[in-house]
Amino acid sequence: MSIFEQGDPTPGIQGRSRRVGWLMLGLTGVIVAGLSLLPAPYVIDNPGPTYDTLGSVLVGDAEIDLIAITGREVFDTTGELRLTTVTRSGNPDSLPGWMDVMAGWLDPTRTVTPVDIAYPPGVTVEQNREAAQIDMQNSQQEAIAAALSYAGIAFTSSLVVSQALEGGPSEGVLLDGDVITGAEGTPVHTVTQLREIIAQAGVTSAMDLVVDREGFPVDIQVVPRMSEGPSPIPVIGILVSGRYDFPLEIDIALENVGGPSAGLMFALGIVDKLDSRDLTGGKVIAGTGTINARGEVGSIGGIRHKLYGAQNDGASWFLAPAGNCPDLAGHVPAGLRVVSVGTLDDAVDALIMINAGAVPALCPGS
Q1: What kind of architecture, by CATH, is found in domain 156-245?
Q2: Residue 344: how many CB atoms within 10 A of its CB?
Q3: How far is Cα of residue 66 from the mean position of the Cα atoms in its chain?
Q4: Nearest-angstrom CA–CA distance, 349 and 366
Q5: How far is it, in rounded angstroms, from Cα 110 to Cα 103?
Q6: What is the reported pTM?
Q7: Per CATH, which fold does 46-122+135-153+248-366 belong to?
């Protein structure tokens, strides 16, 4: 008995396979479309644009210097000092889709973070944005102060309350416009100094503050609380800004960028313009890091993304806070050398060495 059918069964088999295949593809398409529309409880951080602090930016229809200095001689520069940024996709009010999140997990240049860590509970998107803008303004003032201190130019400073956060320990106690002149018996003049005193005070008892309110000294007590988020610290629930009286006018024009991490590169841009030496020697050097008026460089978040952003815009050297070096092992793009800096002095010395063809202290693994 023959085990073969009479006639060729191939056309029927192919037809059924084709129909099943199209059905599977259709179902896959529906699933993919559903995933792309279904919000995921994450945010995605990507390499952002970089900006040359020695160059110009477009503000409205006009192109102006990113850093403009008047009241003192400014020297020509030949290279680029690029501050780096991170672009974030998503927030609690507008979450990304699952397909975007899965793509982010597969892309080494991106990071996917749970939304409740990126935006701690109790802090709205608008409050987060306002805080980032105030951090940027403070960072610019601290950078100017650090640069002028490096250049030996004297100035005075004070600390102003921008806002007491709703529900915070200072609500109804500190008022907008209060000038904080003392904390725990110590005169204070900078944001960094106040933060250090609050951290030392802890959260077990009230701390003493002295403010200048409309020209009159007022004694106040506030009990700090631990902040929300993955790295809690004692806070008193206010947004503050440094008010400096500088002997020359320095304007920094940079829109739609928030946070304090551009401070180092702002300071370097100012130093290079005020210094008769050409610190960059025509090279493209990027970097990141907070800075305070004493010139101390602090660690920042998102540094891996900033490395890729720097590489994308032609940098071959990157100035990184020393505290971030352990985060970079195995994540430095090819062709980029990452220099470890702890102070503004370190950063300027590194520029001089790079310009001379020498290699400054690098982060391990770079």
Answers
A1: Roll (2.30)
A2: 25
A3: 18
A4: 19
A5: 9
A6: 0.77
A7: Ribosomal Protein S5; domain 2 (3.30.230)
Q: What one-letter code names the amino acid at 337? A: R
Cα gap 15→26, rounded to integer Å: 17
pLDDT in tens, 85-121: 999 999 998 999 998 999 999 998 999 999 988 888 8
User: Residue 297's closest CA among 138, 151, 79, 142?
Assistant: 142
DSSP 74-96: -----SEEEEEEEEEE-BTTBPP
Domain limits, the chain = 46-122+135-153+248-366, 156-245
pLDDT per position as a tens digit, 287-344? 999 999 889 999 998 899 999 999 999 999 999 999 999 989 888 999 999 999 999 9
Any bridge partners for residue 219, and if so which? 210
Residue 154 CB burial class (10 angstroms; 0-12, 13-18, ≥19): exposed
- Judge whether residue 212 has pLDDT over 60: yes
- Chain centroid to Cα 52, Å, comes to 16
Residue 275 tokens, joined: 């210094």
